[in-house]
Write a structure and sequence with these properties.
Layout: E1 3-9, H1 16-25, E2 30-35, H2 42-51, E3 55-59, H3 67-75, H4 79-82, E4 86-89, E5 94-98, H5 105-111, E6 117-124, H6 138-141, E7 144-145, E8 156-164, E9 169-172, E10 177-179, E11 191-193, H7 201-204, E12 214-216, E13 224-228, H8 234-244, H9 256-261, E14 266-267, H10 275-286, H11 289-310, H12 313-324, H13 330-338
Parallel strand pairs: 1-2, 1-4, 2-3, 6-11, 6-13
Antiparallel strand pairs: 4-8, 5-13, 6-8, 7-14, 8-12, 9-10
Helix pairs in contact: 1-10, 2-11, 8-11
């Protein structure tokens, strides 16, 4: 079975080897990376890995800011995607945690009775007070999340989707594919959630303008969950923030993205079943001196960028704000306020 992972990256250098090694463990055979405007050694490391096989690295074809959708449009025409049995569209901070069989994508497909698409619910992992970036697997460092069935005030949680080659594709979306317009119901694709059950009908037939990309997580995660490490360490979050917005002077920082993903209420260690094999796979990748040196260069540049940012008053303020912010999601804190149960409000 050929499984191609498709992803877009900008300045993800320190995290590439873990993500590639992890995905190989779960059955991914090929990778298609699109990169743009990298300054941390990401492109150089990807080029070196591509030269060793099993990975294709291309410049992002986007001419404007719609990097992901333009890349996915291009990906549909790439041989590494066209020749795959399954396509997995995901980001480098997302790890498919499979709870069935031998914990691989083929086992998940079999447990879902070989549908044409499988959409797996997100579980957002908190920063949980980890400040310093360290060059260790992300899946070993961050172990706490929200209640997997409820995120903020929502029971419907976003998904990412594995797509079989014979899916009646109109185009790939970042979260789910869309099938051809006017497809008769008898030809609708067989599409399951992460528990092997049919996805809700409204999700199945969503068209482009509605962009439906979520459904209730409860009862949808028995076979697989998508661990999303959107925050990582505070150091890395500052660097990530700079990546998307290079000029913050004289503007207030909105901490809502951080707060919505920094709920540490639930401990989940299940993905650490992969850790022994992951560590061995990372050692194997780094046994190549060229790959090891390029990885170390990415780590150094990541740390240098952190230091440059923290020399700026705006990023010092941002760091202080994030350290001081509540770990309650804004919606939960608002509910407690309404009920008179917020800290300092009782009585």
């Amino acid at each position: 079975m050929r499984i191609t992972a498709v992803t877009c990256v900008k300045n993800e250098g320190p995290f590439l080897l873990e993500w590639i090694a992890f995905n190989r463990l779960i059955g991914v055979t090929d990778f298609l990376f699109y990169s743009n405007d990298c300054t941390d050694g990401t492109a150089e490391l990807l080029d070196a890995l591509a030269a060793r096989g099993g990975l294709t690295h291309l410049p992002n074809p986007a001419l404007g800011r719609n990097y992901q959708m333009e890349a996915l449009k291009d990906a549909a025409h790439q041989p590494v995607v066209q020749e795959a049995d399954w396509i997995w569209v995901a980001d480098v901070d997302e790890f498919l945690n499979i709870h069935t069989g031998d914990h691989t994508i083929p086992a998940l497909i079999a447990a879902c009775n070989d549908p044409q698409a499988i959409s797996v619910s997100f579980q957002f992992f908190a920063n949980d007070g980890i400040e310093a970036f360290v060059d260790e697997p992300v899946i070993s460092q961050f172990t706490r999340s929200h209640n997997p069935d409820i995120w903020c005030a929502e029971t419907a949680i976003e998904v990412k989707t594995l797509v079989r080659q014979d899916f009646p594709l109109k185009y790939y979306g970042a979260h789910r594919p869309f099938f051809k317009k006017n497809l008769p119901p008898r030809k609708y694709p067989r599409w399951s959630n992460g528990a092997g059950r049919d996805v809700p009908h409204k999700f199945l037939v969503a068209d482009n303008p509605r962009r439906i990309r979520k459904f209730p997580a409860k009862g949808s995660r028995d076979l697989a969950t998508l661990n999303h490490y959107a925050l990582r360490s505070l150091d890395s979050y500052l660097v990530k923030n700079d990546r998307g917005d290079v000029n913050r002077e004289h503007r207030a920082f909105d901490d809502s993205y951080w707060r919505e993903r920094n709920d540490p209420a639930f401990e989940d260690l299940s993905i650490q079943r992969y850790l022994p094999d992951l560590m061995a796979a990372l050692d194997d990748l780094k046994s190549d001196p060229g790959i090891a040196a390029l990885h170390e260069a990415c780590v150094s540049l990541h740390q240098e960028k952190r230091d440059q940012l923290l020399a700026q008053p705006s990023y010092q303020d941002m760091r202080s704000q994030l350290l001081a912010t509540s770990t309650l999601p804004p919606q939960e804190e608002a509910l407690l306020e309404d009920l008179g149960l917020a800290p300092g409000k009782q009585g």
